[in-house]
Design brief:
The chain has one domain. About 75% of the residues lie in helices and about 5% in strands. The chain contains ten helices and two strands; from the N terminus they run H-H-H-H-H-H-H-H-H-E-E-H. A two-stranded antiparallel sheet has the order 1-2. A hairpin with a 2-residue loop joins strand 1 and strand 2. Helix 2 packs across helix 7, helix 6 packs across helix 7 and helix 6 packs parallel to helix 10.
Amino acid sequence: MHPVRLFGRAMEHLEGLLWHDGVSRGAAYAASGTMIGVLSGQALGHLGEALGRRLRCPRSVAVTASVAAATYLAVGGQSLHASASSVAAALDTGDVGSARLGLRSLVSRDTNDLDTTEIARAAVESVAENTVDAIVAPLVWAAALGAAGTLQYRAVNTLDAMVGYRSPRYEKFGRASARLDDAEGWLPARITAVLVMLVRPRSAPEVLRCVLRDAPAHPSPNAGVSEAAFAAALGVRLGGMNRYEGVSEHRGKIGEGRECEPEDIGRSVRLSRDVATAAALIAGAASLLSLGRRASRGSQASLQDTCSLQDTCSL
């Protein structure tokens, strides 16, 4: 079983023990899940260092390997792209029923009555939002705090998916998980918009205008940014009326392009992959630079210790 799925099972069990229709129990639940992520990342880091010593590898190599392993566990881009591509393939063959069924793995909205245009819009919006959640954010946290950073983010994002949405059961209990996920995704969402401008430079001015103009109307402080960036880069219009468990929710218009079409799903996947490549290259460079600085400080400290020892011996 994949570690993220195993974590989800454990948190489902903990929810059964902790659940109460109140904010404080939900905060304890969110704190517990986050701590599990942090401790898992730290354990992975210690394991990498232990293996590095056993194999007589430099510490920087061992740390890099542990961060890479944690990032591999946390990043879910391949699954995202495969799910969206399967929806696009179903629409290409005219199998709207299969497309609606496949869309359920990407969105939480009701899909039973969606037409081709609405299915395409939902898929593009999901690719845009999850490019932040499943790709850019784990890389950002890995570059910032290593294995512990990326696994605690994956834990927080998983908790938000489990209990962070509005429903009678989770309105209060899931509030802490949702707010924590918003906070941890705030910077990665804006980095994603910058990356969209970087990989689609001709659309950069419109991406910036759309993000500044349309993103604030979205109920999510982060999803609105990524959806606006994708809408402008793809030349489509997102937002509109969504239904969640039978309740309609109107989201503001995002972008000034045309309505989404089935082929836009594939275009959004290609854009997401380009963003993922750029994010991985930048995060990798940042991590190597950080490791280089740590190694340099360690070498300087070792040199100072050697000089101090020589001075002591000369006395």
